[in-house]
Design goal:
13% of the residues lie in helices and 45% in strands. By secondary structure, the protein is mainly beta. The chain folds into 2 domains: 147 residues, PDZ domain (Pdz3 Domain, Roll); 205 residues, Porin, CATH 2.40.160.20. Strands 10, 11, 12, 13, 14, 15, 16, 17, 18, 19 and 20 form an 11-stranded antiparallel beta sheet that branches. The longest helix has 21 residues.
Length: 393
């Protein structure tokens, strides 16, 4: 008999929860609701807590969306709003549908969790909501979770990221945010062996490259895909060009042009670890490709209008020497956040490459690749270290 009574009570509780989550529109606010006491304990680390919105969230089913004539397949439901909280003060109402936060569309509750990472008390966030067929915009200033005991309805309680204890009380816990991603400029020093290139530079009388490497520039971006993992991309390149006047025949001068291009590009995968509110570290790798290209041209520097065949330049030369590589770069990263949208990124790693062809190749005038006799088997490997601004977190 006791088991049957307990079973009936459990069913009744489940029905009550379902009704609370699915109720939309003009529900009877006088209907009894179940309340739990929520105890928020504060520690010295609470100053770094994430921003408090003061509402509960739930995914919006297609059935409910159709019933209220909601036209889109994104957005989340706000089943309840805490009286006197940041959301209530910003104009949120029960059963609003949250469309976007801080300019990012909210697809579901998981998307909401991702977007709000890195938002803290005192931040002002733009939002869009849908209510009764009208899209509304506004700003919400995030608050701190109240330190005193508060009462929340059970539906709201279940959508918080708190673990319920057997006594029916929950203790608020908080993890340091690993951030949500962003993009940045990546000036990076690449320590590569330029001996083979310096041989060409010396032969034509140009200054050789330093043994310590070259400074590359580029860009990178990444986004949080869950559990501290970030997927993104990165590109870095180096370019240098010189022009020399060839006066070996004063009656027929030529310009010799040399252009040296080096680039690396790939997909990145990183695992972040939050050290403090403003400091995260990560380990990961970039996998992709790299290329080194030397363009040589010898062209006449004075031209005549081709009235006769003798006016057409003779002896011009153009060649595009190149090496392509597969590339993998294990690396580590430190990100220091100064503002919710601005930080400083420091990265160090080592570039490993592999080329399917031995030596350099050259592209002919028709674009075909041709092997070069006696060319060096130039490598593209070495340490890399970079520092630059990061927009995001």
């Amino acid at each position: 008999m006791k088991k049957l009574t307990l079973f009936v009570l459990m069913i009744a509780l489940a029905i009550s929860l379902t009704a609370e989550f699915t109720r939309l529109g003009d529900a009877d606010d006088s209907q009894p609701q179940v309340y739990y006491k929520v105890i928020n304990t504060r520690t010295e680390q609470d100053e770094a807590e994430t921003g408090y919105f003061g509402f509960s969230i739930a995914n919006l089913s297609r059935t409910d969306a159709k019933r209220i004539s909601y036209p889109w397949e994104y957005g989340i439901l706000i089943p309840s709003v805490v009286e006197g909280g940041p959301a209530a003060n910003a104009g949120f109402e029960k059963n609003d549908i949250l469309i976007s936060l801080d300019g990012e569309r909210i697809q579901n509750t998981y998307d909401f969790d991702r977007v709000v990472q890195g938002m803290y008390a005192g931040d002002i966030v733009e939002y869009q909501i849908w209510r009764d067929g009208v899209v509304m915009e506004g700003d919400i200033m995030l608050g701190k979770r109240p330190s005193e005991t508060v009462e929340l309805d059970l539906a709201s309680l279940l959508k918080t990221k708190m673990g319920a204890s057997p006594s029916g009380k929950t203790k608020a816990t908080r993890k340091r945010s690993v951030g949500y991603g962003g993009f940045g400029w990546t000036p990076t020093w690449l320590h590569v062996d330029m001996t083979d290139i310096n041989t060409i530079m010396a032969n034509v009388g140009l200054e050789e490259y330093r043994d310590t490497g070259v400074l590359t520039h580029g860009y990178t971006g990444k986004g949080h895909v869950g559990r501290g993992y970030f997927i993104g991309f990165q590109y870095n390149g180096f370019g240098d060009s010189h022009t020399i006047r060839d006066l070996s025949d004063p009656a027929d001068p030529y310009d010799l042009r040399i252009k040296n291009d080096l680039s690396l590009m790939g997909v990145t995968l990183d695992k972040r670890f939050a050290i403090t509110r403003h400091l995260v570290t990560s380990i990961g790798m970039m996998v992709g490709g790299a290329s080194h290209e030397i363009k040589l041209s010898r062209t006449k520097n004075e031209y005549e209008w081709p009235n006769t065949i003798a006016d057409i330049p003779q002896g011009n030369f153009n060649a595009d020497y190149y090496r392509d590589y597969l590339m993998i770069q294990p690396r580590a990263e430190i990100l220091v956040s100064f503002l919710p949208w601005l930080g400083l990124r420091l990265e160090g790693g080592y570039v490993y490459t592999y080329s399917a062809h031995k030596g350099w190749r050259v592209k002919d005038d028709l674009g075909y690749s041709v092997n070069i006799n006696n060319s060096p088997n130039t490598t593209l490997e070495g340490f890399s270290i970079g520092i630059g601004p990061w927009f995001g977190f």
